[in-house]
Automatic annotation (TrEMBL):
This is Sodium:solute symporter family protein. Signal peptide: none annotated. Keywords: Membrane, Symport, Transmembrane, Transmembrane helix, Transport. PANTHER family: SODIUM-SOLUTE SYMPORTER-RELATED (PTHR48086:SF7), SODIUM/PROLINE SYMPORTER-RELATED (PTHR48086). It is a multi-pass membrane protein. Pfam families: SSF (PF00474).
Length: 477
């Protein structure tokens, strides 16, 4: 895709980016002294880096490349996808006060900590399974995404690119934990946001503005290409109930609420991030749609439409910058998922079995957990034939098993612990079974598992017995 000169310049920029990220992680390595420093950034993050890291985790490489491809292939009706993605995020905003207060009171690190404080230790394992399945798969997907860029730029074999990406991101995350992730996101997230809006303006004017775009012949078989109704209700519903609803129970978001230095910082950072996430997602869809009509770019594989667009519209220095923007987008998302999954291993597998061990021990275990998480994700990236399906299943497991119990836990301080466990396992088991059966009747697992979880919700809303309430409070402490 790139000639020798372009490849050389891209090489210099990509290597410089890697060196910078490693240097940043080394800087924070010396500042990390405690378990909280590593997993929740010392609970001292200010508003600006929170905004940037929240945008960076919301708009990942799959979002950037996927939404450009969706806009290029199907048109402006795909603008409903970023709306669907932020819908649950807006609902989550109204619970930040409770999430932040409970996290500070009980020193919470993971979503399982919060659910255990309401339902007892019985919900830790199903929550952990759901999170690890989803986050290991999506971390592996980011390894593949970076490796794909390296393949296009350098011609590297995909397995070699995956191994190089794994080594860099593992070392970066092992050194700096969430503290380095947040501050690297503050830089990468800013670069990402500015780059996407710049590309939208460039593509719009290169296309001859709206008059030319709207007058262009519509793609064959898609007369509604420029219509906001050009998306099926079923597609939108599935997206909102999977990727959209998943935003409510994203552990990486909850960790950032607990990483905030104050409730005001958490609310302001997340509120601004919601707005920018919606705008950035919409801008990415428009880039693809405008390029299809205005630039008349023909791409055999729509997944490569982003690369074709920047090559057709930008001079070499800016084209190089946009490839760096793409890498920044992928990395700012990848390391967030990486540390979230690693925190679950340290906090929900090791810590409950190592009671009484000091903070220094748990800090070492957190770094060991990063290595364990990296190896799981690497194995999936190299050997899982359908990695996307694993991530979709993990997201469905989170929505079907964890979403409704989380809402109950946020709205009711003393739910019934046994009912919560039944509700969680019922939703999880149904989603997994439906996936194994191959989506009978064409129904996505979330269309079955979520109603089952909702149907079991009255069990969790029962008034618990005194003994169960006391055991739950003891587990929370």
């Amino acid at each position: 895709m790139f000639d020798t000169r372009e490849t050389f310049i891209l090489s210099i920029m990509i290597i410089a980016c890697g060196v910078f990220l490693m240097g940043l992680s080394l800087y924070f390595f010396r500042r990390i002294k405690t378990y909280d420093d590593y997993n929740v950034a010392g609970r001292s993050t200010s508003t600006f880096p929170l905004i940037c890291t929240l945008i960076g985790t919301a708009v990942g490489g799959s979002t950037l490349l996927g939404f450009v491809s969706k806009g290029y292939t199907f048109g402006m009706g795909q603008l409903w996808l970023p709306v669907g993605m932020t819908f649950a995020g807006i609902a989550l905003y109204f619970f930040i006060g409770k999430i932040h207060a409970e996290g500070e009171r009980l020193n919470m690190v993971t979503l399982a900590d919060f659910l255990v404080s309401r339902f007892g230790e019985g919900v830790r394992v199903p929550t952990l399974i759901s999170i690890l399945c989803a986050y290991a798969a999506i971390t592996g997907m980011q390894f593949v995404a970076v490796a794909t860029v390296l393949k296009l730029v350098f011609g590297l074999a995909l397995p070699v690119g995956i191994l190089l990406t794994w080594a860099l991101l593992t070392a970066k995350t092992w050194l700096g934990g969430l503290m380095a992730v947040i501050w690297s996101d503050a830089i990468l997230g800013t670069l990402q946001t500015l780059g996407i809006f710049f590309l939208l303006v460039t593509v719009y004017y290169a296309s001859g503005s709206w008059e030319f775009i709207s007058a262009a012949p519509m793609p064959e078989g898609n007369p509604d290409f420029l219509s906001l109704t050009g998306i099926s209700g079923h597609e939108l519903a599935v997206y909102m109930l999977t990727i959209g609803a998943y935003q409510f129970v994203r552990q990486d978001l909850w960790q950032r609420f607990w990483a905030a230095r104050s409730l005001k910082a958490a609310r302001t950072g997340y509120g601004v991030a919601i707005v920018f996430t919606l705008l950035v997602g919409g801008a990415v869809v428009l880039i693809g749609a405008f390029a299809k009509l205005g630039l008349d770019i023909a791409v055999a594989n729509p997944d490569l439409s982003f690369y074709a667009i920047i090559k057709a519209t930008l001079p070499l220095p800016l084209m190089v910058s946009m490839v760096v923007v793409l890498l920044a987008t992928i990395i700012s998302c990848a390391d967030s998922f990486f540390i979230a999954g690693a925190s679950s291993i340290a906090n929900d597998i090791i810590k409950p079995r190592m009671k009484g061990r000091d903070d220094a021990f748990m800090l070492r275990m957190s770094r060991h957990s990063v290595v364990a998480m990296s190896l799981i994700s690497l194995g999936l990236a190299l050997y899982a034939p359908r990695l996307l399906d694993i991530w979709i299943l993990g997201s469905a497991m989170l929505v079907c098993g964890v979403l409704v119990p989380t809402v109950v836990a946020l709205c009711r301080r003393t739910p019934d612990p046994r009912g919560g466990v039944i509700m969680m396992w019922g939703g999880l088991a149904t989603a997994v079974l439906w996936q194994v059966l191959g989506h009978p009747f064409g129904l996505h697992p979330v269309m079955i598992g979520l109603p089952v979880s909702l149907a079991l919700m009255p069990l969790a809303l029962r008034k618990p017995s005194l003994s169960l309430s006391l055991s739950t409070e003891s587990a929370a402490r």
